[in-house]
Amino acid sequence: MATQRITDFLATRRPEGPCLIVDLDVVRDNFHGFRKALPDSAIFYAVKANPAPEILSLLASLGSNFDCASVAEVEMALAAGASADRISYGNTIKKERDIARAHGLGVSLFAVDCVEEVEKVARAAPGARVFCRVLTDGAGAEWPLSRKFGCVPVMAIDVLEAAHRLGLVATGVSFHVGSQQTNTEAWDGALADAAFVFQTLAERGIFLTLVNMGGGFPTRYLKDVPTAEAYGRSIFDALRRHFGNHLPETIIEPGRGMVGDAGVIKAEVVLVSRKSATDENRWVYLDIGKFGGLAETMDEAIRYPIVTGRDDDQKEPCILAGPTCDSADVLYEKMPYPLPITLTVGDEVLIKGTGAYTTTYASVAFNGIEPLRAYII
Q: Where are the domains of the chain?
């Protein structure tokens, strides 16, 4: 359920329209949970998950570092109080002028996954540190991140050798096991690949020092997920297994796991209808949909917990959709969502676990609908 602070906020402020409310106390608790679970790994919060200034300022004050995907995010992290040495430019797809801008702001750690990207960094940020992203299969993740980013481990060796030749500091290897990764063992194979790259380059006189273990740490939606401690134990065991007593410096990049369960979206039922007298499923239309912040319902990958004031009543499967004049704006149809049969127009619903990847996934003004408003409390 929503935290008491969120419940009190909604009861007293009564904000109109769909909106996200984020409880900073939950973010603080999550940060300390990651620090306890992986005490030897530096935390680089994935800014893209939720870049609200209040969240960034809180995390900066707690000692977090920041994984940024653009110059704009670098500037946000700096404005929140982070120094440039606490920022990584983690996107492997960067314009050369953006690399130069970030480097001019003091950022010296960049992600790459091909020789062409290395060449851009060498020209725009001479002497910078680079880590090469390797491919992982993402098995066990509800929102996989394979194929678009990374290269095979053998190619990573060539990429880091090229970086070394061009005067960059070949620092290490990164990977991402997929967002909302529910398998605590998912890091094992990726760490084996990282160790292979480390060993091969060491034999060639290039000594890597860093493994960026990425994000993937889940938030709870409809199903329970392992604790941060469970991930920490599994990851530490894998590090020992593949690196022995010579453990590298490690960093993690939690985004969803840091802020997902801190947020709740308040929405309203706009319409309840059927398509025919014999239609088995009711259609329930909310005032928020895929274009308003719930883009991760694409392919029904993320199934958010939805709470109503009528949850004690009998439920039946419903097709859940958003309000826009676009036929793609359907949230759950392949697997209809159980909602109270008494749910009706004007009822408010709470969509839990929406602190990550909602406000920044919302369109600017599709159908004239304003972007998703957020209240950080």
A: 24-259, 261-376
Q: How far is CA 342 from CA 275, 277, 318, 372, in A?
A: 18, 18, 12, 27
Q: What is the pLDDT of residues 314-361, one digit of tens each?
A: 999 999 999 999 999 999 999 999 999 999 999 999 999 999 999 999
Query: For the chain, what is the total number of helices (H) and then of strands (E)?
Result: 10, 18
DSSP assignment of 81-92: T--GGGEEE--S
Q: What does pTM read for this prediction?
A: 0.94
Active-site hit among 19, 68, 318, 325:
325
Q: How far apart are CA 181 and CA 217, in angstroms?
A: 6
**Contact residues for 278 (Cβ-Cβ < 8 A; gap 6+):** none
Cα gap 24→29, rounded to integer Å? 9
Q: Which CATH architecture fits 24-259? A: Alpha-Beta Barrel (3.20)
DSSP string, 304-322: --EEETTTTS-EEEEEEE-
Give the list of residues 6+ apart from residue 203 with CB closer than 8 angstroms, or none: none
**325 is annotated as an active-site residue:** yes
Query: For the chain, how many residues are written?
Result: 377
CA gap 102, 98 in Å, rounded: 6
**CATH no. for 261-376:** 2.40.37.10
